[in-house]
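Lab meeting notes turned into a lecture example. A postdoc, R.K., suggested we walk through two folding results consecutively so the class can see how the record format repeats. The first protein's sequence and C-alpha cells come next.
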Amino acid sequence: MITSTTGPQPADFADVRATNLAVVLRFVREHAPCSRADIAASTGLNKATVSSLIADLIDRRLVRETGLTENRVGRPATMLVLDGSPYAAIGVEINVDHVSAVATGLAGERLLTWRRAFSGGDSVNQGMANVGAIVRRVVSRMAKEDRQVLGLAVAVPGLVDVQGTARIAPNLGWRDADIGGDLAKALRDPGFPIQVDNDANLAALAEQRFGAHAGASDLVYLTGEIGVGAGIILDGRLRRGRLGYSGEIGHVQLDPDGPACHCGRRGCLEVMAGVGAVLRKDLSPAEVQMEIEEAVRLARAGDPGTLATLDAVGRSLGKGVSILANLLNPEVVVLGGYYVPLAPWLLPAVHDELGDRVIASEAGGCQVVASTLGHDAAALGGAARVLDSIDSGRLPGGLSRIP
C-alpha cells in the first residue's frame, strides 16, 4: 500500500517496480562491486526479479557489468557497479556575493565546481536572471560532455518552506520568492526538476553522503557564514519541520543582556558566536574572508586578544551545540563555513562547554568536528538531494529516451 494525502491507495505494478529498482540501485551504490546473487540474498528479492531489474538499470545506463570474479564460492559471477556516465546532478548555492555551482555524477564524483561573483540586483527576478545565466552555462558544459541533467537543487540562506518558497532571505533582501518558478522561467523550462531548500539543510545532506562522517544517521550541520543555521538529520532523514522552518539555532537566545541581533532580540547565538562576533565589526562579504585569514594568522602567532576572542566565541558556540546535544543527541555536529579555518581555536572551548552542559555522560557520544567539504558544501548538498531523488525511485528513462 502507498499512503498519500488522500488516504491509503493500492500500489500498482509500476509503483512496486519503481521501488524495487531504487532498492537495487541503492544496493549497488553501497556495495559495488556485487553480483546479482548478492543483491537477491541481501534484499529478499528473487533471482528472476533481480535479473529483470538489473537489465532495466543497465538499459538506463545506471548500472554496468565489469566482468567475472572467481574469488568466491561456486561458479564465477558477473559483477556490477554504478555507471551513470550519461547523467549529471547539479547543485547551486546562492550567497550574498557569490553563486557556487557543483555538478556530480551518479556516484558523487565531481564533474565541475564553479564559484562566480553574484549581484542579486534590484529584485528577485533580476537575481534569478543572473543565477539562470550561470546555470545555463553549467548545463551547456554537461551537454558538451553528453550528460543529461537529472535535476537541480538550489540552496538559499533563509527560511524556505516545504513548497520551496523562500519566505525570508534577509541577507539577500528577498521575501516570498518563488525561486524555483522564477528560475524555471529564466531557464526557459529546462526539462529537469528544480528544487529549493535552506543552505544548512543541503549542506547537511552533503555531509551525510560525501563528508568525513558519511552515512551518519544522526547529524547536525552548523553554517558558519554571516548567519548561523542548522541542518538536522535524524534517523537518516533530513528534518525540516511542519512548514520547513526548522534549524534556526542562530536565534536561540543565550544572553538576554547580550549584544543586539538584527532579528530585534539580544544575545542570540548568531550575534555571540557567528562571524561578526569573531571580527567585531560589520564588513562586506568580500572583506570577511580577508579578516578571517588575518584572525587565523594572529591566532597562530599567539596574539592574546585574538585568542581571547576565539575562546569566548567558542564558549558561546559550545552553549548552542550543548542545546542541540541535549535535545537531539546527534552522533556528530559538523561546523562549516568560516568555522572551519577557526576550528583549531574554537573546538577546545566547544568541547569544554559540552562537558559542562550536556546531561549525558561524555556528551551523549556527540562529536563536534570541522567540515572537510569546503565553502561549497551547500551546493554539493544540492547535487546530493538530486541523487537522493534517484535513490528514492525517480529514475531517468531508458537510453533510447535520453535527449
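The second example is placed directly after the first for contrast:
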Amino acid sequence: MAQKPSIPKGTRDFSPAEVAKRNYIIENIQHQFKKFGFQPIETPSFENSDTLMGKYGEEGDRLIFKILNSGDFLRKADEKAYTEKDSLKITSSISEKALRYDLTVPFARYVVQHQNEIEFPFKRYQIQPVWRADRPQKGRFREFFQCDADVVGSDSLWQEVEFVQLYDAVFTALNLKGVTIKINNRKILSGFAEVIGEKDKLIDFTVALDKLDKIGEEGVKKEMLEKGISEAALEKIQPIFDLKGDFSEKIDVLKQILATSETGKAGISELEFIQRAILSMLLKTAIIDLDVTLARGLNYYTGAIFEVAAPQEVKMGSIGGGGRYDDLTGIFGLKNMSGVGISFGLDRIFLVLEELELFPPAVTGNTRVLFINFGNKEALYALKAVRKLREENVTAELFPDSAKMKKQMNHANKRDIPFVVLAGEEEMAQEKYTLKNMKSGEQQTVNAEELKAILSAQ
C-alpha cells in the first residue's frame, strides 16, 4: 500500500492564487525598500552552528533547527554524552550547521566578511525564508519568510525615524489601515532593572516581560519571581503595567519612574527625539504608540525596539518588528558598528489582508484568454495570435490538446479565465477570431487588431 504523502507541521504548500497574493505583498515591500535606498543581498539558508548559537538568548537557541552532519555522524559523536543520552552535549559533535533563525545575525556575519567591499553606512534589504522549531499555531509557522531592512555604520536616530516612515509607507501601499507601530527602548528596560535593584537579572526581566501578551501580567510576575526577582522589586515596577495615556503622557510617567537611572533617561531622550520628528511628518496610515512592556526578548537590541500590531479587529500576533543593535557585528570581531533594522512578517501580513479582504481582484494574475484547440492546423493559427498578445503583455494560452469543446470550455470556467477564442476553418479563411466573454456569454467575430485592443483594454 502506497504511503500517504504529507508535509512537516508548521510548513505549507501554496496554490497559484496564494503565491500571486504573496508576490503582491513582496513586490509592495520591495518597492518601498528600493525607494528608501536599500540594496538587496542574499545569504545561505543554513549557517555554521556557531554563527547562530548564543545570539538569540536561551529560548531562541532552543528553536534553532540543527542539521545532522553528513555521512556516519555518530562515528564522531561524544561517546560520554551519547551513553548518558545528553542531547545538549552531543549536538555539537553531530551537528555543525543549522538553518537560519532570522536574517539579522547572518547579515551581521555578511558585513564582517565583506567589510572591505561595503560602503558605510550600508543599507540592505533581504527577503528570504527562515526556520524556527516553534509550536505551530495560527500565524506562527516553522518555515516562513522575513522581509528585512537594516542600516549599519551609523548611530544616527534619523534612521529610526526613517524606519517608522518605511513601515507607514508599506502599509499605506497595501491599504492596511489601523496598524500600530509600538516602540520602546532597551535603555528603558535596563533603567527599570536598575531602579528595582535587579541589574544583573536584565535578561530574565526582559524575557519574562516580552511574554505579557501571551501569559498576562500575573504570568509575567510569576516567571520573574521564579527567576529570583523579588516581590519588592515587582512592586517598584507596578506602574509600568498600569501605564496609560498618549505618547507624551507615558513619557512623563517614565521620567518619574526612571529619575535615578542615567541609562533610563538616555532611553527617554531617544524616544522623545523620534516622537518629535514623527509629529513633524505625520504618518499616513499607521499609528505610533509607546509600549514600555515591549522587550522582543532578543539579547542583541541596545536602543529603540519596534513591534507592529495588526488592526484590532484581526486577532493576530505582531506583523513586524526590529530595533537598534549597537555592536552586533562585535560578536564576529568587528567592533563599534552600530546598526538598526526592521522586519515585515510576510505570512502574517498575508493572513491579515486575507481576513480583511484587502487583496485587489487583479492580484491573482489569472490567464486572460484561452484559445480553443481544434487540431494542429488551427492550433498553429491560434499560437501565432497568442504570441502577438503576449508581446502586448496579455496573458494568453492555447489548450494543449484537441479535446472535446465542452472539456476545453469547462477548463476555462474552472480556472476562471474570462475570455476564450475559437478559431476554426471558417475564421482562418477570413483571418478572424471568435471571441467569447465567459461571464456574459456574448460572442463577436474580430480581426487580430480588434482582438488585441479588446483584451488589452479590459
